[in-house]
Amino acid sequence: MDQAESLRRMLAPRTTRRIAVIASERGAGATTVALGLAHALALQGERVLLLDEDPATARATRLAGATPAGTLADVQEGRLPLEAAAGAGTGGAVSVLPAGRQRAGLEVPAAALSAFRSVLVDATTNADGALSPFAGGAHNVVIVMRPELASITAAYACIKRLHHLYAWRRFHLVVNMAATEAAVQAILRNLARTASQYLGVEVLCAGWLPADPLVARGVQLGRCVVEAFPAAPATSALRRTAGSIGGWPLRTETPTPAATPVPA
């Protein structure tokens, strides 16, 4: 399987994959997943950029141990090249870039993004539930939820809203703080059936994270669990998910970061 994965990566078109990681609701763990996947992909030998869209706490930037010199907005407006604006995280495994105030219609130069194999966006939504222009142009979307009724309801509402705004028809879900794989599969089967029946969209399981105290310990230490605790159960789960990303189909339409959502 390792040989097949390596061959597939070698033969795949050289596309910088953009993945938007979105919380179903506040506290679901999107930053944990986005940062963890970024580090897990770097462990596979990829060059990874993490875009931090949380201007209030810059949590992903802090946990990565990065000190960026600029923002995505600086890159879009030509004030700084991407390489100069981004800051390297602990150990240099992941480059981190705060989003800043993005402007629709301004794109990141494709040549700059091509230096990275994957770009993960720790995405936020506005009051209408819309994403930033950059996250809205992602090839894949990952929704992070918890195995609780309120979170399951919020995840379905998030899928419905994003499908309406962007006409996306495929969503990957990660269940955070799960007790067992059986419980995760039951939740996702029900969500997938409901989303298919009422929205006509596909919901796929991207993985699940156990309730692992080492995640919280990593936060206390100001570090990502994957980087701080390589043998942690959550790290193993994140590495499994990262290992599957290369097989995810890219959206067939060309990503358009400058695109605006369809009006309701």
TrEMBL record:
GO cellular component: cytoplasmic side of plasma membrane; cytosol
Annotated GO MF terms: ATP binding; ATP hydrolysis activity
UniProt keyword annotations, A-Z: ATP-binding, Cell projection, Cilium, Flagellum, Nucleotide-binding
Biological process, per Gene Ontology: negative regulation of cell division
Gene3D superfamilies found in the cross-reference section: P-loop containing nucleotide triphosphate hydrolases
Family annotation (InterPro entries): CobQ/CobB/MinD/ParA_Nub-bd_dom, P-loop_NTPase, ParA/MinD_ATPase
Region Disordered, residue ranges: 245-264
Domain (CobQ/CobB/MinD/ParA nucleotide binding) ranges: 19-213
PANTHER family on file: SEPTUM SITE-DETERMINING PROTEIN MIND HOMOLOG, CHLOROPLASTIC, SEPTUM SITE-DETERMINING PROTEIN MIND HOMOLOG, CHLOROPLASTIC-RELATED
Protein name as annotated: Flagellar synthesis regulator MotR
